[in-house]
UniProtKB/TrEMBL annotation:
Membrane topology classification: Multi-pass membrane protein
GO cellular component, one term: membrane
Main subcellular location of this protein, as a coarse class: membrane
Cellular location(s): Membrane
Family: Belongs to the YtcA family.
Protein name: Uncharacterized protein YtcA
Keyword tags: Cell membrane, Lipoprotein, Membrane, Palmitate, Signal, Transmembrane, Transmembrane helix
PROSITE patterns (UniProt xref): PROKAR_LIPOPROTEIN
InterPro entries: YtcA
Organism (species): Gluconobacter wancherniae NBRC 103581
Annotated transmembrane regions: 39-60, 67-88
Database matches in Pfam families: Ytca
Superkingdom of source: Bacteria
Length: 92
């Protein structure tokens, strides 16, 4: 099967764009007890911890009973905390 002429000339450029995300430094990782954990996993655990902590705080304050979409509320709070921690740790 023959590739069209334009695609044949553009293929190396497309491969360079795809490989542009690769770097020599590697992904951000933390050494915990001798094992390396990726940065996104640490930020996800921070997000889960914040969501659980806010749930406990909302239940104690009586705000939880007022919420209509609890699953989406706590999920979005956890995602916001995870993204904020990623931005603060690894951002520009």
């Amino acid at each position: 099967m023959h590739l069209p002429r334009t695609l044949r000339h553009q293929a190396p450029s497309l491969l360079l764009l795809v490989a542009g995300g690769c770097s020599l430094h590697g992904a951000p990782a933390f050494s915990i007890a001798g094992a390396y954990f990726p940065g996104w996993m640490i930020c996800a655990l921070i997000g889960v911890g914040v969501a659980v902590g806010l749930r406990v705080a909302f239940v104690l304050a009586g705000i939880d009973a007022v919420l209509s979409l609890r699953l989406f509320t706590y999920t979005s709070l956890g995602v916001m905390a995870a993204l904020l921690s990623w931005l603060l740790c690894f951002g520009p």
